[in-house]
Structure formats: C-alpha cells, structure tokens
Amino acid sequence: MFIINLHYIVPLEELDVHMSAHVRYLSKYYKQNVFVASGRKVPRTGGIILAMGKTKTEINQIIEEDPFHIHQLAEFTVTEFLTSQQHPELKEFIKKYG
How far apart are CA 94 and CA 17, in angstroms? Predict the structure, then answer.
C-alpha cells in the first residue's frame, strides 16, 4: 500500500482550474481498484491519496498522469507501507485487489 502526499506549489485559483481533470484522473484509478481513499489536507495545502499497487515504480507512473503533476501544480511524495492491521472489510478488499 502507498500514501501519495501532494503539496500544492501554486495558488489555489490556479489549481482549481485543473480540479475537474484531477477528479476524472482519480475516478479512473478508483474504477481500477488502485485508489482506496483520497482527499484534501486541512488546511488546504495539498492532498492525500491512499493507493494499492505492486511497486513504487507503478505508483509513480500513475502519478505522471495526474493533471496536478503534468501542470506542475503540486509536489508528490510516495511512501510505501505494509498493512499489519486494518478494518476487516479493507482486509478483504486488499486480498481481492492488492
């Protein structure tokens, strides 16, 4: 599992121009069972995406499709972690799609 940490590097007004495209990008990878959860940080300085993938390289390739990455609107950091505990339904999801 991976935590994708976005840190916005442009004003929010510039970021919001690309928000619809970013949401379409997120939807694509939710449908492929790669993304598990996502959302804005509070305060709104970036976002977090919880993702499943086989390798960090695979996740980095997926990030390259994000309009926020393409237009250099955010810096991305990827942290891989091994789940040792999780909600039972998430455990089944990971077994099925992870």
Answer: 34
**Identity (one letter) of the amino acid at 80?**
E
pTM: 0.91
Determine whether domain 2-97 maps to CATH 3.40.50.1100. Answer: no
Using CA atoms, how far apart are residues 54 and 73, in angstroms rounded to an integer? 26
Residue 95, both tokens: 């077994």
Residue 16 neighbours by CB under 8 Å, 6+ apart: none
Q: Span 47-59, mean pLDDT?
A: 96
Query: Which band of pLDDT confidence, cut at 50, 70 and 90, is reported for residue 40?
Result: very high
Q: Using alpha carbons only, give the angle 28, 34, 35 rounded to the nearest 5 degrees.
A: 80
**Cβ contacts of residue 67 below 8 Å, gap of 6+?**
18, 21, 22, 25, 73
